[in-house]
Amino acid sequence: MFLYFCIAFRSMPGCTAWLNNCVGYGNHRYFFLYMLYTTMGSLFLVVFGFEIGYRYLWLEHTDNWTELEPLEGHPVKINLSGHLIPVTHLNEYDEDIWPAHHDLPTPANAVDANSPYVLGRRRALWFMAFINLGVIMALGTLCCWHAKLISRGETSIEAHINQAQRKVMLIQKKIYIKPYNFGLRMNWRLFLGVVRGRSFWRTVLLPSWHKPEGNGLSFYTVDNYIVAANDEWP
Asked: Which residues form the Palmitoyltransferase DHHC domain (predicted)?
């Protein structure tokens, strides 16, 4: 039913099960910004969380290194004054610098690498990584596709219509002009609502509730927008 509704009116970019509704005149801007900000948020987590995940998954819980030649002596620490202080007990926060072989007492609360707590955290990190990568690939691809449609001033259904019309005009040796393509800059301004004195910061970066341009039934085309520029054109 939703698909037939969209094809009948030919003014919807498509249908989505996520919204259980058609994405079109009234909510296309919100849907696109939702995809864009979700993709950017997932990309932010992957980029800035990669080092944390790498250190925890590969460096902190791998097999300890083995000394090629046993060292002689006693582990020491250097304080701020430069004095050498003998180490008599290994603290939990010193786990990264433990010697490969030692006979010093280890803390009783040291976390085992194979404990359910550590395994649970590792699985949670893997799950978060796969979820974020999946969102970036799936939602990012859909976002790029919608951005391409917006740049061309068409919906997904109109893209098929324009393609068919272009083939017909090509046979007739004519040039087909898309009726709602006002150029890259104007297409994005109309889509985001950055018209009638609205600013980019208040319209795009902050939540906005203004309605799209037009009434949803009739729209300006490339044939009459110049005439209407002195009237009510944004």
From this structure: 17-160
User: pTM of the entire structure?
Assistant: 0.65
| Long-range Cβ contacts of 14-20 (<8 Å, 24+ apart) | 14/155, 14/156, 14/157
- Give which of 56, 124, 126 is closest to 95, Cα–Cα: 56
User: First CA to last CA across the chain, in angstroms?
Assistant: 35
Look at strands 84-86 and 76-78 and give their pairing. antiparallel
Helix (H) or strand (E) holding 84: strand 84-86
**Rg of the chain on CA atoms, in Å:** 30
Q: 């296309």: which residue's tokens?
A: 28
CA 230 to chain centre: 40
